[in-house]
Specification:
By secondary structure, the chain is an all-alpha fold. It contains 8 helices and 2 strands, in the order ααααααββαα. Strands 1-2 form a two-stranded antiparallel ribbon. The radius of gyration is 19 Å and the shape is flat.
Length: 179
């Protein structure tokens, strides 16, 4: 439980972020361009600040960006390989659920991603869902990762998104958290 151990974990997340960024961009461009992008990323002051202090912002950012990278990869494979398409969307949902489970303020990002998948699967002329698979696999992954956190919070506070929406769900944990 030392501060140094927590700092090492944060630096581990930063290392994962850099490796993920280089790996994803190497698939889109050449390795030299990917490494240049990593250097630009590391030169951003907020990245340095986030990696110096023990907070959960850097891990949440890693989960969110990885979620988008997995979603992009799934969309690139959509017509080629359905099994890979399913796995990438499931992974994208798991990563979004991990971000929400890590920090509840990532919930709007997950909601927008799910809405984009729903709208992308609609045929607006016939008003029917023509491609429900992307949203379905994403939602399964999301609930797999975030579901236990929502359940735990619901059982403890009577509100799955505590301390938010206490007027709607009520508050059984602490009277000082009422809106």
């Amino acid at each position: 439980g030392s501060e140094f151990t927590a700092q090492l974990v944060i630096w581990g997340f930063l290392l994962c972020f850099v490796m993920m960024l280089e790996g994803f961009l190497s698939g889109l461009a050449n390795r030299k361009s990917a490494r240049l992008a990593v250097l630009i990323f590391l030169s951003i002051p907020v990245v340095g600040y986030s990696s110096l202090y023990v907070k959960n912002d850097l891990p949440v950012s890693l989960f969110i960006v990885a979620h988008y990278f997995a979603m992009i990869q799934a969309l690139r494979l959509k017509s080629a390989d359905f099994k890979s398409f399913q796995k990438w969307f499931l992974l994208s949902g798991i990563l979004a659920g991990g971000a929400v489970g890590h920090k509840l303020t990532a919930l709007p990002i997950a909601a927008v991603s799910f809405l984009i998948l729903i709208l992308g699967g609609l045929d607006f002329k016939s008003r029917k869902m023509v491609r429900p698979y992307s949203a379905l696999f994403w939602l399964m992954g999301f609930l797999l990762a975030a579901g236990p956190w929502f359940l735990r919070t619901f059982l403890a506070a009577g509100n799955p998104v505590f301390p938010f929406l206490t007027r709607f769900f009520g508050n059984h944990l602490d009277p000082f958290y009422d809106d």
